[in-house]
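Q: Got a minute? One more chain.
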Amino acid sequence: MKKKKIFVPAQTFKNLIAEDTLHILQVLDKHMLSIDQLNKKTKIPSTRLHQQLQKLVESNVIKEKRKNESIHYKLSFKGTSLLHPENSRVMILFTASIITLSLSIGSMFHWATQTVQTREEPRFFLQESDKAVNEPLSLLTTETAQNVHDPFYSGIAIVGIILFVLLISVTYWRYQKNKAQAL
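A: Always. Here it is, folded:
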C-alpha cells in the first residue's frame, strides 16, 4: 500500500512527534472519548496521556467537550485534516461546485430578467408624410420593442450547469473513494 505524505505546521509537528500522540489521534478518529476511555484503548499512562492531550488541545488538533461532568476529547477539523488530507480535496471540489451553480443561477436570472425588461408597451411616434394631411388617422403609428436575448448569459448558464454536474460528480466519486479507503 502506498504511504501518504502529511504536511503539518512546525508547532503541530512538535506535538505530533511522540508516537503516543499519533496513537491518540488514531483512536479519536470518528470517536469522542473521555480520558478514562482513552487510557483503556491506548494503554498510555495517565500522566503522559494528560500531557499529550493538553498539547493537542493547545495546538487545536483536538477539542475538549464537557459531557456528563467529565471531559471528552474529539478530533477538531484540523486534526481530521491531519489524518485524512484527502478530504480537503473533496471540500475544495464541493465549494467549486457550489460557486459554479451560483454563477449559473445568476446568469439564468439575469438572462430572464433582461428579456422581461426589454418588453415595453407600444410607443406611438409621429410620422412625417404627405398622407398626414389627407389621412389624419395615419399620423400615429405604433412600434413595439423587440425581445432582445443576449446569448452570452444563456451560454454562461448552460456551460455553468454542465460544469456543475461534472464537478459534483467528481466530488461524489472522490468522496466515495475516500470513504472506501477509510474502511
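A: Residues 138-146 have pLDDT under 50 and may be disordered.
Q: Perfect, thanks.
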